[in-house]
Description:
Layout: H1 8-18, E1 22-24, E2 36-38, H2 40-59, E3 64-66, H3 75-80, H4 83-86, E4 88-93, E5 100-102, H5 106-117, E6 129-132, E7 135-139, E8 147-151, H6 156-160, H7 163-170, E9 176-185, E10 200-210, H8 214-234, E11 242-246, E12 258-266, E13 269-280, H9 282-291, E14 297-299, E15 304-306, E16 309-316, H10 318-328, E17 329-332, E18 335-338, E19 349-353, H11 359-373, E20 378-380, H12 386-395, E21 400-404, H13 406-411, E22 413-418, E23 424-428, H14 432-440
Parallel strand pairs: 3-9, 19-20, 19-21
Antiparallel strand pairs: 1-2, 4-5, 4-6, 7-8, 9-10, 10-16, 11-12, 12-13, 13-16, 14-15, 17-18, 21-22, 22-23
The structure holds adenosine-5'-triphosphate.
Amino acid sequence: MNKDNSNLLEKIVSLCKRRGFIFPGSEIYGGLRGTWDYGPLGSELKFNLKQSWWDYMVRERDNVFPMNASIMMNPRVWEASGHVASFTDPLIECKTCHERFRADKQEDIKEHEERHAKNKEKVEWTEPKQFNILVEAKLGVIEGEKTTVYLRGEITQGVHVNFKNIVDSMHPKIPFGVAQIGKAFRNEITPRNFIFRSREFEQMEMQTYVKPDEKEAMEMFEAMKNFRMKWYLDLGMNKKKLRFREHAPDERAHYARAAWDIEYETPWGWDEAEGIHHRGDWDLSRHSQFSGQDLSYFDQEAKERFIPWVIETSAGVERPLLYFLLDAYTEEGDRVVLKLHPKLAPYKAAVFPLLKNKPELVAKAQGIYKELKNNFTVAWDERGNIGKRYFAQDEIGTPCCITIDFQTLEDDTVTIRDRDTMKQERVRADELNEILKKMAD
Ligand code: ATP
């Protein structure tokens, strides 16, 4: 097996474009930096990734409540949360070419300085300026009287501002979680590394409200850290490429009592997949103060009223998606295989008639294809020779290929070929539903 990591990112970018996973945003107009469009296979992969998170975090657990809040919120939300004042990155500018960078991203700065050094130029930088990365939009119909709103910079606040609604409508018993998946927007100074740092992206988050007790909060924090790491491992990510990293004190938001990241070893070094944060009572206290509403919780059992603390798990969608692609990419001899977990794979199977000019084979294969399509995403391919069709499916991560041949017409059996082992087996056509179901579970 050849896992040559040189140019791995370039290989993924090219495969994603060529095979319909991910395209540069607005490409025919020259693009829009930091935006990406998901094509047919990328949309399926993204959907599967989110579904897997949702099943794992919401459906399979008790006392977790789903939410879906607005992207645009009252601007006071972002004053209360501290984003208007301090959702900033330090910006510096190269005095020679005026390109702008984040002063805290040493790698980018080094790369830029090396680029100038090749022309025997020494880079001089401007002093760092704090740059707010909230994306603004204008709402209203009368010119001059429009209100500035912010496209949410994180999905977290949509949950905290609904804390009272959740408590009043669902009567949850503490500790309880509120989960959400949705878009977030950041005016990133340097979008880079494909979808890793985009200006529009999605997040998958759970806010767990706990009693204001350091021991209980830290127990929940540890449990969440391990639970989140297990999600990556259950989906088959290489354990050696995953690690926890504790934030240094100067990286931590001032209100965070503990902050750890789950990181993946990317071609550009270890980098963040998601964060687990102990946010104390920062969010609810601030929203209570700014809105004038009582956001406390009454614990029926202990007969106590308090403002809960929050343990947050905040994952992006795009970063894990990119890491799963990097992790799955394998070159074996003359084939490229995406060894994606079947849960994530855009297609669970591909169905082929052995020959496309034999109507009875095509009709039989179409019947099997349509039947499987009721329960799974399945690809159909009748072009070229079988070997090429197998390789084309390997490259997009389809876990198995089902071929309908002349024997199928006689005894209703098909061959099923495994993506990873390339082994072929003959099975009864009426077993296929069960086989695919087991595989996807
Ligand atoms: P960074 O330091 O890399 O800018 P962050 O620490 O500010 O990221 P958080 O605010 O903790 O990120 O956001 C939670 C998660 O949202 C991140 O772990 C990441 O997966 C995702 N995320 C944040 N910013 C982006 C972005 N610009 N593009 C894609 N995903 C992002």
